[in-house]
Amino acid sequence: VVTRWYRAPEVMLLPKQYNSSIDLWAVGCILGEILGRRALLPGKNHIDMICRAAQTLGTPRDDELTWLPKDTDAYTFLRKVCPQSEGMDLSQLFPLASPACLDLMRSLLRWDPQQRICAADALDHEYIRAYQPKTPPPLPEPFDWSFDGFKPTSHAVKERLYLECAMYHPEILERDQAPAPPSRSPPAIVAQPMPPMGAAVKGPPAASRQVITSC
């Protein structure tokens, strides 16, 4: 997401609504870079990135922009400001690439995230199917982001960082005379500032220690 040359269009045009399909766009950019020995879309900024994508892949049709509301500035920019283009012929841009390779690249670099090929289908594509292991690996479990469901105030981040450290170094709880966190509702503990370089590490005095029993 943060590496500009590999950002999917929806990250730049609709930055708060995207899913894992952005990774498949990045793979398509990397595939083009491998074939051409240089970055496929070396944009200078997000506006230049969209213009380069349109120049290379062609300006998207309306049926490829169903995910982008027509009343947004991004849609207006794409239709009225960004130069309209039919796109480049990938077979001429990469003359040594096989038809199967170019087909996979086109499937990865689709403007519409819903039309973009998914990871499982990409792995089963004829261009790389021969490299699949005989026994398919188990699918990873979806990542659980529930731990991130809190208001990221300075106090909340400090206490969660402290408790994360306590998971690996429980001795700091004894050092700070803090109660051990329960399994489900860990106590919120305000982290103390680091001691000066060379100073002996001791627990903070009781008067300066603050322990909150609920998050």
What pattern of helices and strands is seen along the backbone? HHHHHHHHHEE
Number of strand elements:
2
Mean pLDDT: 84
Q: What is the helix content?
A: 25-40%
User: Strand percentage, roughly?
Assistant: under 5%
- Intertermini distance: 32 Å
Low-confidence stretches: 184-215
SS class: mainly alpha
Taking strands numbered 1, 2, ... along the chain, how are they ordered across the largest sheet?
A: 1-2
Counting H and I runs of at least 4 residues, what is the number of helices?
9
Gyration radius, in Å = 25 Å
Which overall shape is indicated by the principal axes computed on the Cα atoms? Answer: extended
Largest sheet: 2 strands, antiparallel
Topology:
Layout: H1 9-13, H2 21-36, H3 46-57, H4 73-81, H5 90-93, H6 99-108, H7 119-123, H8 154-168, H9 171-175, E1 188-189, E2 211-212
Antiparallel strand pairs: 1-2
